[in-house]
Amino acid sequence: MPVELKVNGRSVAVDAAPNTLLVHALREHLRLTGTHVGCDTAQCGACTVHVDGKAVKSCNVLLAQVAGRSVTTIEGMAAADGTMHPMQAAFKECHGLQCGFCTPGMVMSAVDLCQRHPGANEAQIREQLEGNLCRCTGYHNIVKAVQQGAAAMK
């Protein structure tokens, strides 16, 4: 049964079982592979996307739950001309990544964090990103990137 929703500003109908996880609908049906499958238990944050502007872990959301709603993936963050979102640019400039596996989910969470807490300090950023695991970095450059991205988003 097709489930209609808006993904990255475009109306789509995903022909999958309603109990399909959103992460699998995005990756397998829409071929938006920037959203990563890390743990399948909502622990790591690699699958984070925005639903109606709020960060959610897409491995913990059913496709049917987002029917008629707006989903933004990492692929939808850049401007139409390909210019990176300020948070993406900050992660690049501050070397807030190593292997890159966690980066899409980290960027999505960071954007949501900055929209909810625009003046967040280092401790608040670290606390708010606890649901996003990075196995490669010490988080120092990630925090720096979030701070720079937040400043650029203002």
Automatic annotation (TrEMBL):
One Pfam family linked to the record: Fer2
CDD domains: fer2 (cd00207)
UniProt-listed InterPro entries: 2Fe-2S-bd (IPR002888), 2Fe-2S-bd_dom_sf (IPR036884), 2Fe-2S_ferredoxin-like_sf (IPR036010), 2Fe-2S_ferredoxin-type (IPR001041), 2Fe2S_fd_BS (IPR006058), Beta-grasp_dom_sf (IPR012675), Diverse_Oxidoreductases (IPR051452)
Highest taxon of the lineage: Bacteria
Gene3D superfamilies: 3.10.20.30, [2Fe-2S]-binding domain
2Fe-2S ferredoxin-type domain mapped to chain residues: 1-77
Keywords: 2Fe-2S, Iron, Iron-sulfur, Metal-binding, Oxidoreductase
GO molecular function, one term: oxidoreductase activity
Obligatory cofactor(s): [2Fe-2S] cluster
Protein name as it appears in the record: (2fe-2S)-binding domain-containing protein
Species annotation: Hydrogenophaga intermedia
